[in-house]
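Q: Given only this backbone (288 positions), what sequence would you predict?
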């Protein structure tokens, strides 16, 4: 697959603001690595600026493991070291100057954090990539997507694995897996979003009937943090000007290709999520 010109060629006078400021609400005391992986993947996939919105108590820990190019912004937290609903106003003020909002990786299902997620999704008018605990916050609250889709044209990309999709729809995982293409497509149409149903042969579907089934990737990518990497890549491509469907499609393809390249070097058994990030530039090169 050849990547679009928008991702391959940059004007001589381009500056970092031309390639999107990605704001990632992620991480917690227990899951700080999810934020770091998502941010690292976003900058490696070409985002001009990346800021991690994290609980204040993990700021020092994140600084030690995140790439130097990724910025941090600490927000109010709960007693469990997760993002607190008390930080909403501060978040809403900050996002005025960003292009894409990511919400979900490593947030946990703390009640205050989940309330914050729902308030962000319903109250902030920015293109969003919603993953992991961002999706869990929508279980029983899918009406928030309907309200937002009526009020705003801002892209919404949801990236569930089969278990998350089953919880969102209130059905068994077996049902999701038995009809992946149609379930992803119907979900996208019903809520006017772009759906990335992850897993073997990841399905990307949007609300107007576009559909892509991915063939790159391998079982070695079934490892902690792999989904966080994909989320960062999707956000980076959205921030660089691709449509929601194309951002998801090309990110899914390159994510799988980078995983295939990593497996050749590290083996499927020995591969970890950061190995996928390391292979993003080589995957881009192969598609240019």
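A: Predicted residues:
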């Amino acid at each position: 697959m050849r990547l679009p010109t928008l991702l391959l060629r940059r004007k001589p006078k381009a500056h970092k603001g031309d390639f999107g400021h990605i704001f990632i609400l992620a991480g917690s005391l227990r899951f700080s690595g999810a934020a770091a992986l998502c941010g690292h993947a976003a900058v490696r996939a070409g985002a001009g600026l990346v800021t991690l919105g994290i609980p204040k108590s993990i700021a020092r820990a994140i600084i030690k493991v995140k790439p130097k190019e990724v910025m941090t912004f600490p927000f109010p937290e709960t007693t469990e070291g997760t993002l607190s609903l008390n930080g909403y106003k501060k978040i809403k003020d900050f996002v005025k100057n960003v292009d894409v909002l990511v919400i979900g990786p490593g947030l946990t299902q703390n009640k205050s954090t989940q309330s914050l997620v729902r308030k962000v999704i319903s109250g902030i008018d920015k293109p969003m990539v919603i993953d992991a605990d961002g999706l869990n916050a929508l279980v029983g609250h899918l009406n928030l997507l309907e309200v937002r889709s009526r009020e705003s044209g801002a892209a919404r990309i949801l990236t569930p694995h089969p278990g998350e999709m089953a919880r969102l729809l209130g059905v068994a995982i077996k049902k999701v897996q038995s009809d992946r293409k149609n379930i992803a497509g119907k979900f996208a149409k019903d809520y006017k979003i772009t759906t990335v149903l992850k897993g073997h042969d990841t399905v990307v579907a949007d609300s107007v009937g576009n559909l892509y089934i991915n063939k790159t990737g391998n079982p070695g990518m079934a490892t902690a943090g792999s989904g966080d990497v994909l989320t960062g890549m999707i956000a980076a491509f959205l921030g660089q000007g691709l449509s929601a469907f194309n951002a998801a499609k090309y990110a899914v393809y390159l994510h799988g290709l980078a995983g295939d390249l990593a497996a050749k070097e590290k083996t499927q058994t020995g591969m970890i999520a950061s190995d996928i990030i390391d292979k993003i530039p080589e995957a881009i090169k192969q598609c240019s």
